[in-house]
């Protein structure tokens, strides 16, 4: 059924104007003021967007759904996570495939792809974590890039003996990535330093969640960012530092950029909204807020918002990695080192950025769209199919009501997690209608689409 969105204030990363948007066969085919609905097919679905913004569908470039990690698995499946994403205005996600050290990359890719194909409600693509790197793995990585639309790798410098990559393999992988034009996303924290500091703290009887941050201080992260940038400089590879939480880490990336290194920086919404006092709450409540890198001092939040405003930080993602408080986070009741790392934010991200970024004057609407949609599309090879409102782009659109106020709560969250990290916080603005390739899939925080209609977005390598 064709779709007409009338009279909305269209806001993209660069433009701001009022017009109608007409969509047929999954794409935007006309943008003009005053399109006369009498000239359109009679079955056209008409949405009145007067008084509302119309944004390009938001893109979350850092999501975990199937995440076997720290002795458990994240609690969402591809249906619940992607319904939550759509309800919050996110129409495309990039999920991290995280295989174990013995798993073949090709098998991991098809495992994740099969899961997503049957259940995903929003569009999706993948970063593939390179954990195994023998000759078979190397050959499979090349085939996935040439034949399966894989265009980004992931490396973990953290998580010793679980997911971390050796320097020997990192250097060779980045050399290969450069040759293939693949961008490498990196979790930048020094695994050995964290391991030693965790052991020291636990030996001193410091076992509660409040010791998680001291076990991986800012210097550990800055070292990680410097490390990936140094290797990128030596190999010519393009790299993307994920979930950068503090000034010291951002500065290392900016120093490298000044030297000519092709590095992009991601911030994630938990670090921008919450500070480390949340993880210091009593009665093990702090476990809800354990993620890595950890929540930092409040002063770091302004650095991140300013970095987004100045475009030093390219993207705001979520690092959605939901673990229940009961039955999962409590695996670490005797030691913070056993608390599964991660938080859920895929539904809340856009509203949090609008409420605490735009409404407070920290960033403008163009910067919001750029950081939450357009830059991810550009960096990861999906622009202008995604991340834009143009004739020919996918009709992924968010009709956003800035006057809708409420609170964030587990009661309204479509993720399967048993708590909301932002419980009780004020929300200003909400997606009133979300379309995915021309079909209405969410309304006023509810998923209203047909299950499983998300599709895989294959990508071409562009980072030569
Ligand atoms: O704490 C986090 N970030 N959990 C998910 C895994 C990762 O490191 O991204
Ligand atoms: Zn990470
Ligand atoms: Zn992550």
General form: globular
Determine the CATH superfamily of the domain at 57-379: Metal-dependent hydrolases
- According to CATH, the fold-level topology of the domain at 57-379 is TIM Barrel
Uncertain residue segments:
none
CATH-derived architecture of the domain at 57-379:
Alpha-Beta Barrel
Distance between the termini: 40 Å
The CATH class name of the domain at 57-379 reads Alpha Beta
Structural class: alpha/beta
Per DSSP E runs of 2 or more residues, the count of β-strands stands at: 19
Helix content: 25-40%
The radius of gyration computed from the alpha-carbon positions, rounded to a whole number of angstroms, is 21 Å
Provide structural commentary.
The protein has 464 residues and is α/β, with parallel strands linked by helices. 30% of the residues lie in helices and 23% in strands. It has a domain at 57-379: Metal-dependent hydrolases (TIM Barrel, Alpha-Beta Barrel), CATH 3.20.20.140. It has helices at 78-87, 105-119, 135-147, 167-180, 191-203, 212-215, 218-235, 247-258, 269-273, 299-309, 349-358, 365-379; strands at residues 3-11, 16-24, 27-32, 45-48, 53-56, 58-63, 68-69, 72-73, 90-97, 123-129, 152-156, 183-187, 239-241, 263-268, 315-317, 397-407, 426-436, 439-443, 446-447. Strands 1, 2, 3, 4, 5, 16, 17, 18 and 19 form a nine-stranded mixed beta sheet that branches. Helix 7 packs parallel to helix 8 (247-258). It is globular. The chain binds N-(aminocarbonyl)-beta-alanine (URP) and zinc ion (ZN) (2 copies). The site of N-(aminocarbonyl)-beta-alanine has 9 residues, from loops.
